[in-house]
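Proteins fold. Shown next:

***
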Amino acid sequence: MLAGIGSRLLLGLAATLATVLYAIDSTIVNVALPNIQGTLQATPDQAGWVVTSYIVVGAIVTPLAGWLGVRIGIRAVLGWSILGFTLGSMLCGVATTLAQMVVFRMVQGAFGAALVPLSQVALLQEFPRESHGRVMALWGMGVMVGPVIGPTLGGWLTDQVSWRWAFYINLPLGLLGWLALMASMPRGGGDRKRPFDTLGFVLLSVAIGCLQLMLDRGESQDWFSSTEIVAEAFVGAMAFYMFVVHSLSGREPFVDVHLFKDRNFTVSMLIMFVIGIAVISPAVLVPGFLEQVKGYTPTQAGWLMAARGAASILAMMLGVRLTARFGARPTMALGIALSSVSLLMMGQFGVDTQTDWFVLSSLLQGLGTPLTFMPLSLVAYATLPDRARTEAGVLLTLIRNVGSSVGISVVIALLARSAQANAGHLVEYFSVFDLRRWAAVGQLPGPDAATVGLLGEIRRQALGIGYANDFLRLAVCTVVTLPCVWLLRTPRTGARGAVSAAAASDH
């Protein structure tokens, strides 16, 4: 265990910064992408690889990060990951061609894959059990708040300075995190005898890579009408099937299948998948609604989204107290309920929705997600042996990232199809005679202008309905996980005891 409060604070700082680095960078570049496209003289499809390369490589390397953490130790892998991610960020900032940018983003994704899972494992490993509640609340802030502030920060930096600063911002954060880690975490802890399952890693990498490519490129390629998407789906499914067979029959598989015999861990994986959908998808949809339907500027939308981030910070602290008093399962149930209510409120969004309705729904979303995430992060490990934490942490991060990718791809695809269908239905209520009549009585300046204005309004209304339908779908997805909470067990020496002790020590 760590010696001294100072070392513990430094490790907490290092883990939080590592988490924030990855969480922010997952969304910050999306806002700056049009500017990057213009500077690097790329087409929209080519520019999309700036995001795709980061996501795909990160997803592939994430399972490898778990094996490396067990083999050479958490400190070594996390330290090199922070340095590599920081270097990759600097290189992205100075890139002058699209090819350079894609390669450097792959570097970012490869080194960034270990940041979130291993920073969590480092805290659980080095802090005493009675402190796990507080440190998970601190660590969870980066996971929850990062995707929210990423677009806002990226938009502001792009508008006020340059898109390159969306990458340069990582340099001071990365160096500070690395110095804090080196000064606080002891060396060693690796198991040099841990073998490497090459076949298992290759099969899992192919499966994850194909899935991420399919999800990221599906919308632009019109999904399964494209030969590329069909091929990626087929190859990915076959690779995953072979991976499962190999893991069940192999002596020392790449992923320890015995982890899934633990009920807490398996149920936590399911809930974490839904969290990945419920956290990231609204963070993408809400700014789009505010800008495209309500006509807000990116800065105005960012300020409205800030309410969610502020509520998340409060909820992380509140979650420790609630879990200590009532237990992990009631706290998680409350979190899921609040998230569901917020999504139902968002499902009522329309062109005439008032600002206070946006703020209230964002506040509830910001409260609900951490109240689910924080106790889940404790209960997931409560019934696992300490040696399994690294691999379990990596798998939980992987499933959350997959959930995020699936959620974003599905809601964007459904939004596009729904908006098109809604526009078709709305157009049926108007005709050219209506336009001429309105123009004749002076309600519209002329038939041509009337047509343009009417079509614009129809598009806006259709998009608004599409966004509302997406939010309602996410609400249903969140609600159906509520029964899963009661399948979790909280042993006397597990998460509840840790959180109770943490809360008691605060008095």
